[in-house]
Amino acid sequence: MNSAMRNLQTTLVTALKADAGLSALIGANRIFDAAPKALRPPYIVIGRHDADLRDAQETQLTTHLIDWHIWLSEPHRCDGLNIADQLCAVLFSVETLDGGATLVQSRNMRTESAITPRNGWTRILVQTQFKLDISTV
User: Tell me: the pLDDT tens digits for 44-101?
Assistant: First the structure.
């Protein structure tokens, strides 16, 4: 299951980094596993990636929840939601994964927005779900 997590995340991040529309909104190479200390937003951080194995007779399904945090350095929810739309468009256009797993389903579970009182930055959380069949891996 760990290799499925790694392969899914690598495939998704590669697709996001290659997307010209997303790069136009946040800049090139602005997707990270952890929030950069000295870099000012905009950027996207993978906040969490959880996986759960569902074993069936003929298949092994894994459900992956991935939290994507979109950060902007000013209070602009609309700009953040536009980035969220592009993020989802790219994520849900992925059809094949590295490593042999089959993508069965992908969807947006929820989206939330907040303006942080400390610095006025905008944070948009997009929680996505991916279901994989790893029985062929």
Answer: 999 999 999 876 666 788 999 999 999 999 999 999 999 999 999 999 999 888 777 8
What pTM did the predictor assign? 0.92
How far is the C-alpha of 108 from the C-alpha of 70, rounded, in Å? Answer: 15
DSSP letters, the chain, are -HHHHHHHHHHHHHHHHH-HHHHHHH-TT-EESS--SSPPSPEEEEEEEEEEEEE-SS-EEEEEEEEEEEEESSS-HHHHHHHHHHHHHHHTT--B-TTS-EEEEEEEEEEEEEE-TTT--EEEEEEEEEEEE-TT-
C-alpha 119/C-alpha 102 separation (Å) is 42
As a whole number of angstroms, the distance between CA 25 and CA 2 comes to 32
